[in-house]
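Comment thread on ticket #2218

A.B. wrote:
> Attaching the input chain for the structure job we discussed in standup.
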Amino acid sequence: MLSKGHSSVMRAPSARARVSLSRRPLVKVRASFSSVAPLGSRILVRIEKSQPQSAGGILLPSSSQKKQNNGVVVSISEDVASVTKGDKVLYSEYAGTEVDFQDEEHIILKSDDVIGVMPSDDVSKLKPCGPRILIECTDAEESTTGGVLLTQSVKERPLTGSVVAIGQGAEDESGKVQPLSVKVGATVMYSKYSGMELEGKDGKQYIVVGDSDLLAELS
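C.D. wrote:
> Ran it. Output below, let me know if you need it in another format.
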C-alpha cells in the first residue's frame, strides 16, 4: 500500500536491467509518496550499499561492484512473524522487486525469500528462517590418498558439515509449524547444488540449505 497521490510507480527505462540476470528492474517510487506498506506476507528491506573498493583497496567501477543481498527491514505486512522492523536480513539473490524509494535502493520480498536474520556481520551467527539450516562445511582434502598435494582449483569440498543453527520450521497446510529433521551439532550430508555458500570472518566456509536438501545424518 502506498500513501498519497494517484499514480504508484514508473519503471526505469534501462534495457540492460530488463535482460540481465544479476540486476532486477528498478521501480521508482515518486517523491509524492511518503511510505511503502508491504502486503501479502511481504517485507520492505533497505539494501546494503555495494562495496566501492576491493579488499586490497582498489576502487571498483559500478559495473564490477558486487550486488548486495542483505539489508535492513524497514516495514512488514501484518501477517509476517519471522522478522521485525530493524532486523538485518540475508535474502535469496534473485528474489523480490527492487524499488528506488526516497533516493535509496530497497527491495520488496516475500517473507519466504528471507534466508535468515543477521545479528552481526559474522555469518556464523546467522539465525536461519523457516525450514533452513546453517552448516559449517567440512574442509576439503589437502592431498590425495597417494600424498599428492592438491591445488585450490582441483580441491573438491565434501558435501558434509556440522549444523550450526536451524530455523523454526515450515508451516503445514493446517498452519502448524513442523520441526526440522536435524538438531544443532549434527553432522549431515547435503545436495551438491543446493543452498547459499557464505564465508565467515574466521575464514571458515558455511552454507545455508533447506531441510529438504539434506540427504543424510552421519554418525
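A.B. wrote:
> Thanks. Noting for the ticket: The radius of gyration is 20 Å.
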